[in-house]
C-alpha cells in the first residue's frame, strides 16, 4: 500500500573517548551505575569514530542491526534497554515532502533498522563500544525526535555501555556517578569544549590487535568483588583526583594533567593486579613505553608526554603540543622501528587544518 512506501533515515557520527580518570567498577550492573566519577577526552570526529544510519519504515517487521555490514543480534538486555528508553520518549515526526507523518503513539508499533560502521578495526583492541553505543542512542534520538538534551541522552547511552555516556559530548567530559538508585543523576557533562585545549596531540600505539582475554564488564565485576585497593581508590582517591584533574584541564596545566593521568592509569592497572584472580591488561611492550615516557619526562624540567592504558596493552600517549608530538613519534619509531609490531597512529584534538 502507498502509505507503506516511506523510509525515514538519520545518519550520525560519534568519536570514541579516552579516559584520563578511569571508570572501573559498577554498583548496579543492570542500570550501569559506576562506583566513581570518571573523566575523558573525546577524540576528533575524523578519527576512531562510528557512523550509524538508522531507518524507520512501516515496511520493517522487526528491529534489526548490522555492524560493519554483518547482521548482529539486538536481543541483549543493553540494546533492549536503550531502545526502550528512547521509544518511551519519542515524539511526533513530520516530513511533509516525503509524506511522512508519525504520531507519538505510532512509535511503539514501528520497527527500526540500524547500520553501524567503525572507521577503525573493531578488533584493534581500541574502545569501540563507547563510540558505537553513543552513536546508536544519538541517531535513534534524532530519528524519533527526542527533546532530551545531551546529558539526558548520555544517561540512556550509559545503559548501553558505561564509557559510551562520555562520547555524547566533545572536548573534556566527566561522567558524574550520581547517588540515586534509579540512575537519574548518573550522566555525562562537558568540562571544557573541543577548542579549549587544542594544542594537545594524541598518539595511539597499537601494541596488539588481539582481542583482550578479560572483557571490561567481567574484569570490573571481579575487581569490585575482590579488590580492596579498588574500594580505597573509588572512595578516597578518585574524588580528590577529579577535582585536581578538572582544575588542571581548565588551567591547561600540562604538568599536573600528565602527573594525574599517568598515576590514574597506573592505579587502574594496580587494581587489576589486586583482583583475584589477577587481571593483566598491559604487556612487556606497554611497560617499555611507560619507561620511555617516564625517563623522558624526568630528563626535562617539566613533563612533556602523558600516557594512559585501558583494558588492553595499547598505549594512548598525549603530547603537550605538536612539536613534542613529532619528537614523541620520532622516539617511538626509534624504539619500535617499523616491523617491530607496534603500530603508531596520531590523532589531533580539535584539528582545524
Ligand atoms: C574507561 N574502561 O573509563 C575505562 C578504563 C576501560 C578502562 O570504560 O561494562 O566498555 O560496558 O560499562 O564502558 C571500559 O568499560 O564497560 C571502560 P561496560 P566499558 O574508559
UniProtKB/TrEMBL annotation:
<dbReference type="GO" id="GO:0005777">
    <property type="term" value="C:peroxisome"/>
</dbReference>
<keyword id="KW-0756">Sterol biosynthesis</keyword>
<keyword id="KW-0753">Steroid metabolism</keyword>
<dbReference type="GO" id="GO:0019287">
    <property type="term" value="P:isopentenyl diphosphate biosynthetic process, mevalonate pathway"/>
</dbReference>
<keyword id="KW-0444">Lipid biosynthesis</keyword>
<keyword id="KW-0547">Nucleotide-binding</keyword>
<feature type="domain" description="Diphosphomevalonate decarboxylase-like N-terminal">
    <location>
        <begin position="15"/>
        <end position="188"/>
    </location>
</feature>
<dbReference type="GO" id="GO:0016126">
    <property type="term" value="P:sterol biosynthetic process"/>
</dbReference>
<feature type="domain" description="Mvd1 C-terminal">
    <location>
        <begin position="202"/>
        <end position="353"/>
    </location>
</feature>
<keyword id="KW-0456">Lyase</keyword>
<keyword id="KW-0752">Steroid biosynthesis</keyword>
<dbReference type="GO" id="GO:0005829">
    <property type="term" value="C:cytosol"/>
</dbReference>
<dbReference type="GO" id="GO:0005524">
    <property type="term" value="F:ATP binding"/>
</dbReference>
<protein>
    <recommendedName>
        <fullName>Diphosphomevalonate decarboxylase</fullName>
        <ecNumber>4.1.1.33</ecNumber>
    </recommendedName>
</protein>
<keyword id="KW-0576">Peroxisome</keyword>
<dbReference type="GO" id="GO:0004163">
    <property type="term" value="F:diphosphomevalonate decarboxylase activity"/>
</dbReference>
<keyword id="KW-0067">ATP-binding</keyword>
<keyword id="KW-0443">Lipid metabolism</keyword>
<comment type="similarity">
    <text>Belongs to the diphosphomevalonate decarboxylase family.</text>
</comment>
<comment type="function">
    <text>Performs the first committed step in the biosynthesis of isoprene-containing compounds such as sterols and terpenoids.</text>
</comment>
<keyword id="KW-1207">Sterol metabolism</keyword>
